[in-house]
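Narrative of accomplishments. A recurring question from our advisory board has been how the design workflow behaves on a single, concrete structure rather than in aggregate. To address it, we present the structure tokens for one chain from the evaluation set, followed by the sequence designed for it. No filtering or post-editing was applied between the two.
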């Protein structure tokens, strides 16, 4: 009997049962694989919201990164959770400062094409003063030991994070100058963000307008008596017609009332502080009294004693004006201005004032005074002035050097090499955040004299203080940028 082959299909209920088992096994396997994958790639959650390493400024990091010298785009600053925001070594902590973003280019022989360098703010963030028209009500009340107490800043870190400011002087009455547009390009090309203009020159102010370059404008001596006796309206008219008609007031940091009036203009020195009071009231009426400060550049001859600096004292010949001037500066939180020229100290007394000490030379013999070490005449003169101020009861007034330099010709000690050494020494100290032994880590704001060699001067060397010649080429050789 032949064997029969059974080819009939499975019963329907059995087929459905087997299919259900296969489907269930597939689902279980897929779920197990999914859990394994999720466990392997699961990451902890990092919450960066509300964390700000930029000094407490909240907001979008990609649009507000103020660290200088960084060219990275916004995606690189926000995509890496391991990166932190470090302060740039060239950032400035003041603004006053502020200047802050300095050009990295060094001196060149001629002005290259214009580049923007207008980030400096340059004004002190001082407190607003009270209102009123008379002197007693319009000036802030004086606090003990002065209201501009820079000694409190000594706790701030030194070095480049406390970078100081260096500007340049130009524009004396009768001085021959290149075209204003050339001057502005020269300033920009070397990163110069602060200037002292000896007198208000409309064409120069107009050329500087909008550049961001901060300006100290001089009030000429032949205007002092008129401003002293003319009242607020007279001073307002003078401000508007001589300065504010040509330049944005936000670029003006100081009015330098006269220049060395106590030394050169003794006949009108009694008008100095009254003129400053009236100018202050005029600025106050415009709401500019906290952004545009007032002071008067003094010659170092106002000091009767410089060495040792701990014995610094004002000459009794000038105390009648110095004392009300110091009170005005303290009340308005302004700096005392002084022109310091170690060159003059040397040529007047070469036997007792060593040349190398004036030029910041490393081999110069240091001066020891009350436990402080001095390595240059510049520091000696600044600290002697600070001591003299303290002796008059004002410990909080800062010093601003409104003119310093070294001539390149016209005297046996006036050479290009000496001028380069001196200017380099001043710039390195200030821009590296170095103060004086009395106020370390508090760099003095300095204005170099002068931008150009001059065509005027009683002594031949007075014509050769320029950093540049009229064609923009260097008169001195320095490799430090502003």
């Amino acid at each position: 009997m032949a064997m029969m082959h059974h080819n009939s299909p499975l019963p329907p209920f059995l087929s459905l049962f087997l299919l259900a088992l296969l489907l269930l096994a597939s689902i279980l396997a897929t779920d197990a694989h999914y859990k394994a994958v999720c466990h392997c790639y699961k990451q902890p959650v990092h919450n960066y919201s509300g964390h700000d390493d930029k000094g407490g400024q909240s907001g979008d990091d990609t649009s507000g990164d103020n660290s200088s010298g960084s060219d990275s785009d916004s995606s690189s600053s926000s995509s890496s959770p391991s990166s932190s925001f470090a302060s740039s070594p060239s950032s400035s902590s003041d603004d006053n400062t502020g200047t802050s973003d300095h050009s990295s280019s060094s001196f060149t022989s001629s002005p290259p094409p214009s580049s923007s360098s207008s980030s400096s703010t340059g004004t002190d963030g001082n407190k607003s003063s009270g209102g009123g028209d008379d002197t007693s009500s319009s000036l802030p009340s004086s606090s003990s030991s002065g209201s501009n107490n820079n000694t409190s800043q000594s706790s701030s870190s030194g070095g480049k994070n406390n970078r100081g400011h260096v500007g340049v002087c130009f524009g004396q009455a009768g001085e021959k100058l290149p075209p204003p547009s050339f001057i502005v390009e020269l300033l920009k090309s070397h990163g110069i963000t602060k200037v002292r203009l000896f007198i208000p020159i409309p064409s120069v102010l107009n050329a500087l307008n909008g550049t961001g370059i901060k300006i100290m404008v001089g009030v000429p001596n032949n205007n002092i008596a008129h401003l002293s006796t003319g009242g607020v309206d007279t001073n307002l008219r003078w401000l508007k017609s001589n300065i504010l008609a040509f330049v944005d007031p936000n670029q003006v940091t100081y009015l330098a009332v006269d220049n060395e009036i106590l030394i050169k203009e003794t006949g009108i020195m009694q008008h100095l502080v009254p003129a400053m009071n009236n100018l202050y009231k005029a600025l106050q009426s415009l709401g500019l009294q906290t952004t545009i400060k007032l002071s008067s550049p003094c010659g170092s001859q106002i000091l009767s004693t410089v060495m040792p600096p701990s014995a610094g004292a004002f000459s009794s010949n000038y105390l009648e004006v110095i004392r009300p001037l110091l009170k005005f500066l303290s009340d308005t939180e302004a700096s005392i201005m002084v022109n310091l020229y170690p060159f003059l100290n040397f040529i007047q007394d070469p036997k007792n004032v060593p040349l190398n000490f004036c030029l910041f030379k490393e081999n110069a013999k240091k001066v020891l005074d009350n436990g402080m070490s001095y390595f240059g005449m510049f520091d000696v003169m600044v600290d002697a002035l600070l001591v003299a101020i303290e002796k008059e009861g004002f410990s909080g007034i800062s010093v601003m050097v409104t003119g310093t330099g070294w001539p390149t010709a016209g005297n046996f000690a006036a050479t290009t090499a000496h001028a380069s050494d001196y200017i380099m020494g001043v710039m390195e100290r200030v821009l590296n955040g170095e103060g004086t032994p009395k106020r370390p880590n508090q760099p003095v704001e300095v204005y170099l004299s002068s931008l150009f060699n001059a065509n005027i001067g009683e002594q031949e060397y007075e014509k050769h203080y320029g950093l540049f010649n009229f064609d923009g080429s260097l008169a001195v050789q320095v490799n430090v940028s502003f």
